[in-house]
Amino acid sequence: MNYAVLDLETTGHSAEDEILQVGVVIVSDDLQIIDTFSSFVKPTIPIPAFITQLTGIEEQTVADAPELDDVLLKLIPLLDDAVLVAHNVGFDSGFLNQALEKCGYFPFTGRRLDTIELLRILYPSITTYQLGAVAEQFGITHDHHHRADSDALATAHIFIEAVKKLRSLPLLAVQRLVALIDGSKDLHWFLNNNQTFMEQNTVFESNEYDYYRQFALRAREWNEEQPARQDKEEEAIPADMTFAAYLDMVRSKFQERFQDYEEREPQTKMFHHVFEALTADRHLLIEAGTGTGKSLGYLIPALYYGVQSGSKIVVSTHTINLQEQLRNRDLPLLGEVLPFPVKASIFKGRGNYLCLRKFEGKVNVQDLLSPTEDAITAAQMVVWLSETETGDQEELNFGSRGADFWSTVSSDADSCLNRACPWFKRCYYHRAKHEANVADVCITNHSLLFTDVQADHRLLPSYSHLIIDEAHHVEEVAGKHLGMNVNYFSLVHTVTRLFKDSRSGLLPALRMKLQNEGDEHVQSWVETIDTVIPVFQEIKEHWDKLYEMLYELAADRSDSLSDNGAMVRRLHRGGIPAGWEEASQVENNIHVELTRVVKTVEKLMNDVKDRVDELPVQATLTDLNGAVRDLTRMKDELRIFMKLEQPSFVFWIEASTAYRYRSVQLYAAPVDVSEQLQKYFFDAKDSIIMTSATLTVQKSFQYAEEQLGLTGYEAQGKLSTVQLPSPFRYREQALVMVPRDFPVVKGASVDDAYLDKLAGSLAEAAIETRGRMLVLFTSYKMLKQVYELMKDRLSAGGIGLLGQGIDSSNRTKLTRRFLQQPESVLLGTSSFWEGVDIPGEALTCLAIVRLPFQPPNHPLQEAKAELLQRQKQNPFMKLSIPQAVIRFKQGFGRLVRTSQDKGIVIIYDTRVIDAYYGKHFLYSLPGPKIETMFTDQMVTRMREWLNEENPEDAFEGTKGKGASS
Question: What is the pTM (predicted TM-score) of this model?
Answer without folding.
Answer: 0.87
